[in-house]
Amino acid sequence: MDILKTVIDYLLSLGAAIFxxxxxxxxxxxVKMKIxxxxxxxxxxxxxxxxxxxxxxxxxxxxxxxxxxMLKATGISLPIVDGGWTTMSxxxxxxxxxxxxxxxxxxxxxxxxxINRTNTFNADIWNVWxxxxxxxxxxxxxxxxxxAFAVAAVQIVFELMSADAHQHRIExxxxxxxxxxxxxxxxxxxxxxxxxxxxxxxxxxxxKFDAETLKSKIGVFAENHVLGFLLGIVFxxxxxxxxxxxxxxxxxxxTSLTLFPVITKYFMxxxxxxxxxxxxxxxxxxxxxxxxxxxxxxxxxxxxxxxLAIIFTVPVTLLFSMFLPGNEILPFAGIINISIxxxxxxxxxxxxxxxxxxxxxxxxIFLWVGTAFAPFMTQLANQTGAxxxxxxxxxxxxxxDAPVFTYAFSHVFKFLEGNFIPAIIMVIWVTxxxxxxxxxxxxxxxxxxxxxxxxxxxxx
Length: 460
Description:
It contains 16 helices and 6 strands.
């Protein structure tokens, strides 16, 4: 057992930019890719992950001080420190049973593939910490390790179901075939789904309005570099920066928005040959069945809509943090909230107007859940020494992935104490997920039938 823990800890310590490409190379060779092509694809994927991580860090490093300056100008003081996802990951991995989540995740995935309950091979094994985080929350509430792993197993199943359902829409939006997203952040799309259905009934919102549409309406001002520059100017003014600091922030924002689509091309370059090889292999082994590769969200990072929604959400989140009843977390490390923009992007199919509305509606949820998770995340941090905290200091994250799911499924056992709110929220999430899943599958089936008809007509 200790040997298994040591091996797993070492592999995962390599990070996503090394670990995921290794998995992809092994998978490529397993489906009969040429070794040189598999290695080339894996290295390119590592380059893409590293490039996206560098850009996000660069952007976060530019925006976070501005956000901090905005809040400092208001004199607002909130007691819970925002440690961001990296701190939450560190605390989660300090749980003594964390390494057992790795074989559980692989085992469930293999079983569901064998019995044909999923078509997704989850290569995003590095993000196993997301399951550990949920399990840690369950232990914090119940003290029961078996319940913790049971809830984590449920999460793994839902991740695979969500990946299957989203694949078609992701392919339409990203242009990358055979790849889907297995990150639990997309679970929030199930909560956004009924809201988006209502928004679609408003004629002005039920039309195409993506970054290209914006560009056609306002011309050069919607070009990535110009738009990024203008947004940087706005942030600099709100943060009361000097002229030099404001211009520097503007150029940094322009750089980020300009380079995100460039990095995404490397994801396409890496994943396209892998996807084709996996599809060919599956067609030979299992007639009529397509195997999908599940990955973390960054391969969708070239979508300008995601970054525009993220940047817009920064001042919205700061405003909510000041006045939202029940909030005690100061949003800094998680202020670049990818976990709200990606599900909004998927559920709206990239409609920027509806994405922004959903992000406004969703922002308070992240703050409330971040506040709710602070007590036991702080307790675990103090017990394990994973993070050094001052006496009385509390820590959490203002952008916890899939906040509704994570809160409801970890706190559901509160009903034993007479608190039925998490159980009600869980029922709402599951119900919404079922209807959303059904609509996504219908959309994929309808589009497939239409393409087959069009293909027949072309042949004729």
